[in-house]
């Protein structure tokens, strides 16, 4: 297992036993646009099959951030489920976490790390991530069901405004 302590005392650890999986599931399933509605069992399986990274407060050891790397530990990784508790944002924890994950994977020999983001490009660019060099080489197979986005009008009895496939 790997651990790293930030100058302010925050601890990063890859120990899966330290993860507060109930809290992680809550964060992801209720506040992370990419995982809204994800069930607990899926979250548990995803973290069990990945290299987990938790960040913990210096004061009481409670968890404030999480990430996981889906990796073979030798050549490739996908960085995903990066989340910082809303109360802990604005302190650079997300960038520190992404950089620590990247550095740790590099120590293992992993040379290519991918991620996807809608809104945190600057955070990841700050630790060296760039857009794909040749995006036309990459393909995907997306078997997710269509998602209906809830808007204020729907909540007040109106008709759905947005449906995404």
Structural summary, described in words:
This protein has 165 residues and is an alpha+beta fold. It has one domain: Gcn5-related N-acetyltransferase (GNAT) (Aminopeptidase). It has helices at 21-31, 40-48, 93-108, 121-125, 152-155, and strands at 3-5, 11-13, 51-56, 63-71, 76-84, 112-114, 147-149, 162-164. The strands form two sheets. A six-stranded mixed beta sheet has the order 1-2-3-4-5-6. A hairpin with a 6-residue loop joins strand 3 and strand 4 (63-71). Mean pLDDT is 92; it is low at 159-165.
Would you count the extended β strands for me?
Answer: 8
At CATH level 3, the topology is Aminopeptidase
- Rough shape? globular
Question: What count of helical segments does DSSP give?
Answer: 5
What is the highest CATH level, the class?
Alpha Beta
> Low-confidence spans: pLDDT under 50, at least 5 residues?
159-165
Furnish the topology, listing elements before pairings:
Blueprint: E1 3-5, E2 11-13, H1 21-31, H2 40-48, E3 51-56, E4 63-71, E5 76-84, H3 93-108, E6 112-114, H4 121-125, E7 147-149, H5 152-155, E8 162-164
Parallel strand pairs: 5-6
Antiparallel strand pairs: 1-2, 2-3, 3-4, 4-5, 7-8
List keywords for this structure.
165 residues; alpha+beta; Aminopeptidase; six-stranded mixed beta sheet; two-stranded antiparallel sheet; 24% strand; globular; disordered C terminus
């Amino acid at each position: 297992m790997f651990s790293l302590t930030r100058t302010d005392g925050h601890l990063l650890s890859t120990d899966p036993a330290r993860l507060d999986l109930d809290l992680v599931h809550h964060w992801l399933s209720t506040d992370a646009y990419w995982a809204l509605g994800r069930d607990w069992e899926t979250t548990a399986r995803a973290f069990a099959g990945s290299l987990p990274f938790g960040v913990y407060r210096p004061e009481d050891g409670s968890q404030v951030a999480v990430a996981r790397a889906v990796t073979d530990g030798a050549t490739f990784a996908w960085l995903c489920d990066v989340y910082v508790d809303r109360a802990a944002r604005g302190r650079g924890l997300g960038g520190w976490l992404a950089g620590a994950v990247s550095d740790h994977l590099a120590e293992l020999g992993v040379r290519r790390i991918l991620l996807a983001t809608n809104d945190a490009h600057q955070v990841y660019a700050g630790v060296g991530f760039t857009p794909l060099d040749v995006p036309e080489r990459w393909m995907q197979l997306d078997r997710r069901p269509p998602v209906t986005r809830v808007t204020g009008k729907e909540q007040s009895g109106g008709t759905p405004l947005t449906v995404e496939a």
